[in-house]
Amino acid sequence: NKKVNRQAIFNTIVDAVMSGKKQAYNILTDSVLTIDEFKTIMANGNAINSEIKKINENDLSAIRMREKWVFNKEKFTLEKQVTRIDFLLKKANETGDYIGDKPLFYVKLNN
Hints:
This protein is α+β, with helices and mostly antiparallel strands. It is 21% helix and 43% strand. It contains two helices and six strands. It has helices at 6-18, 35-44, and strands spanning 24-25, 46-48, 51-53, 60-72, 77-92, 98-108. A four-stranded antiparallel β-sheet has the order 1-6-5-4, covered by helices on one side. A two-stranded antiparallel sheet has the order 2-3. It is globular, with a radius of gyration of 16 Å. The two termini are 24 Å apart. The relative contact order is 0.21. Mean pLDDT is 86; it is low at 46-52.
C-alpha cells in the first residue's frame, strides 16, 4: 500500500522489539527470536560487496499484513484488524541486482 508509512512502521516495531515491548518471530519456523538473535538479524541481514550493513526500511522489499475481519451486526459494519506484520528483505545477487525476497521477521499485533 502506497499510503503506508513504511519507515514509521518499521522503526516503531524494531524499537518495540529491542525494548522488549514486542516479541519478534522467525517467519519460517514461527520460533521466538531472542533479543540477541534479533540484533544479529538486524546487523547482518544485508551484505553488499562483502560489507556488513545495518538493515533499515529502505532494504525492505515488502511489508505483509495478516488481517482478521470482524462483522458488527448491530452497526452493520465490517472492520479490519491487523494481527501480524511480516517484514521481507530485498535479496540481491553479487552484482546488486534484485533476485527475490528473504524473510526477515514478524511481529504479532493485538494479542
